[in-house]
What does this fold into?
Amino acid sequence: MSGGHDTSERRDEDLLLASVVDRAAFVAFYHRHAHGLLAYFARRTLDAQTAADLTAETVADAFAGRARYRDHGDGSAAAWLYTIARRKLDRFIRRRTVERTARERLGLERLVLDDDEVERVEALIDFAEIGRAVAGALAALNPDQRDAVRLRVLEGESYAQVARELGCSEETARARVSRALRRLARELGTEAPA
It folds into this structure.
């Protein structure tokens, strides 16, 4: 069903449009973006299996919805794919679980990574860069917010304990942690690559 067309020189947009009737075109599109998607998720979840699950769910959703894709020019196919990825990541962050609906709809089994595969995915994560970014973002917080995050997030203290240690009300402790986490999220960002 490939139609015999060489896909190596075709634009992503053309591959995605052709994939509605030529599944080989989607396979070529997938091969171009699978590594980038996996790295995108690995760097944001810091968990190889979660990154693999989110990649699979994103690709399955893209495959299922490829007929709805509209070509808006060079780069729009990748942007479309990463929009799906960003939505999957947002849902994961809110629910702390990876949806399986797109994979299940296509009848795809979950890929469970072995130790070697986990190591290869983890190699996509630049932990030193992440550490520097987190340290910089924490340093940019005001001392009250930084202490609140340290106590609540890093040390796992209850809000009541955070309030006692900071000498404030529990409501104030919650507000400091909330504001600090929002600022950290902005500083560290989770936007897809252009």
